[in-house]
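User: As part of a screening pipeline, I want to sanity-check one entry by hand. Below is the sequence and the SMILES for 2-acetamido-2-deoxy-beta-D-glucopyranose. Please return the complex as structure tokens so I can compare it with the automated output.
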Amino acid sequence: MSVSLGLFLLGFCFVLESSECRPGAPCLYLPAQGCRFPETAGNCAGQKYCLEQKANGQNQTDSPVEVALYYESLCPGCRQFLVLQLYPTWLMLHDIMAVSLVPFGNAQESGQKPPYTFTCQHGEDECLGNMIEACIMNLTKLAFPIIYCMESSEDVIKSAQVCLQLYEPAVDWNTVMTCVKGDLGNQLMHANALMTQALKPAHEYVPWVTINGEHTDDLQQKAMSSLFMLVCNLYKGTKPAACTGAAMKFDRNYL
Ligand SMILES: *[C@@H]1O[C@H](CO)[C@@H](O)[C@H](O)[C@H]1NC(C)=O
Ligand SMILES: *[C@@H]1O[C@H](CO)[C@@H](O)[C@H](O)[C@H]1NC(C)=O
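Assistant: Here is the complex for your manual check:
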């Protein structure tokens, strides 16, 4: 069991690491190519990263379903959604979905100019967790696995360094902490505050989900009960085998 899981994860990491976001490539996460989300237009730095769409016969002209999560690093409901719904769905459906993570949620920002001051619902540790995750999104290529690793750990903050080393050993922890304590982190969190404040309708709770930039009670409830089914149903292109259960040819050179 653990051996086959290990092999699976290695295979998956390989797929991810060999992916690069090139201008013009059909990327699902677009780090340097502007925003896909209407509500993030203007300042989206660091909110997304790249996973090249695999050339597996799918129609690459169809746009991916955009799922954005507005959340707080220590909110139990947010952690549960990210760990049990968003990340597993993304593992299965990353060919047809784009994920945007905006850590801020019910936090408050004060100050008229940088550096801004932030206060968080679950205390200083939550602000720290939000900031670490915002910086990781800006500084690494594998932000989502790292953030999943943190959010699924018993201690979100203490696990951060290990999670970074696990998925992206080339990025030094000190670089992340320099971001967290410095102007970059402050700027990234300010951008998250603006994005959260710009939500229409305004968010009333967290986790708050938008699908293709839209939030309704119906979409939120469907996302909470089965994000996987929601993304499959909303995708307009040829449905991947994961959605339909269609048999796939198994490549014997796989391993
Ligand atoms: C990181 O943040 C800086 C400053 O906002 C921005 O210029 C840069 O594009 C960001 N990098 C990524 C990969 O998001
Ligand atoms: C891909 O999508 C385009 C535009 O929707 C359509 O014209 C084309 O037939 C599709 N190709 C395949 C292989 O499904």
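Points to compare against the pipeline: The first strand starts at residue 65 and ends at 71. The chain is about 45% helix and 10% strand.
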